Amino acid sequence: xxxxxxxxxxxxxxxxxxxxxxxxxxxxxxxxxxxxxxxxxxxxxxxxxxxxxxxxxxxxxxxxxxxxxxxxxxxxxxxxxxxxxxxxxxxxxxxxxxxxxxxxxxxxxxxxxxxxxxxxxxxxxxxxxxxxxxxxxxxxxxxxxxxxxxxxxxxxxxxxxxxxxxxxxxxxxxxxxxxxxxxxxxxxxxxxxxxxxxxxxxxxxxxxxxxxxxxxxxxxxxxxxxxxxxxxxxxxxxxxxxxxxxxxxxxxxxxxxxxxxxxxxxxxxxxxxxxxxxxxxxxxxxxxxxxxxxxxxxxxxxxxxxxxxxxxxxxxxxxxxxxxxxxxx
Length: 329
Ligand code: GLV
Ligand code: GLV
Fold this sequence. Notes:
The chain is of the alpha/beta class. It is built from twelve helices and twelve strands.
C-alpha cells in the first residue's frame, strides 16, 4: 500500500497518535507546538497530505484544502463543533469531514454545564474569592445568599446529546425541565416530563437558560437584546455551546442593568479574547455574577483521549475505504 500522510495541526493526546502510528503505511506528522499555525504556514505544512487532523482553533477553508492537493481525503476535526471548517468547500472537493461526538464528550460537557449552573446558583466562585481573601470573620445569616435549584425551571435551548444529559442532571436536583429545539422529541417528553415550549416562552419561564445548539447562521446572536428582555430578571444564562450564539455586549448591558441574575460561559464570542471590546478587555470578568472557564468543558483525561481515538479512527476508516462513523460531509 502506498504511504499515506497524516498531518496533525497541534499536539493531541497520545492515544490517537499511537493508533495512527500503529499503521506502518502511515506517515504521521504532529506539529509539535501548542499554537495555531498562520494560514501561510498551514498551507505549507499540509502540502501533499492525505489527511488533516485539525483542532477547533484552526480555520480550514478551501484555500488550505487546495494547498494540500487533490489527494486530500479527509479532515478529522478534534471537536464536536465544526464551524471552523468550510463544509461547502470540502463537499465541492469530495473531502470527508468528521467530528468527535463521543459519548464521553457529551457527558463531560453536560457535567461541566451543571457545575456552572450550581456555581452560579450557590455563588461558589464569589464565595471562594471572598474566603481566600481573608474576609470571612464569622457566620452571618445573610452572607452570600444564593438560590436553590430544587423546584426551579431549567430551559434548554437545543436538545441534542448534551442537552438531554443536562436535563437528566437537572431532574436529579429536582428542577423542572423545559426545552426548545427545532424538532420535538416526544419520547424525551414522555421519559422526563419535560415540556416543549416556544423559544420566547422558554426564555420567559426559565430560571436557568442553558444553550446547547451548534453555531449556525440561524443561531448566531440567538441570545440578543430582544431575547434577554424576555428573560426573568434573576435568571441565569449558561453558554457551553459556542461563543457567538450569545451577543455578549447585550448580556453585559443586561447584567449592568440588573436584568439578568448571572452568566456562566465556557466559550467566548471573540474567542480566544474573553471580551469583544478590545478597549476594555476584561469587562465581563469584572462582574462577580459572571463565571468563566477557558473552553474546558470537555477537558477531562478520559474524554480528550476518546476524542483523539475517534478522530484517528475516522482517518483509518476513510483510508480503508469505509465511511467514517462521524462524517458530517
Ligand atoms: C468543543 O467545543 C467541541 O466542539 O468539541
Ligand atoms: C449552619 O451552619 C447551620 O447550622 O444552620
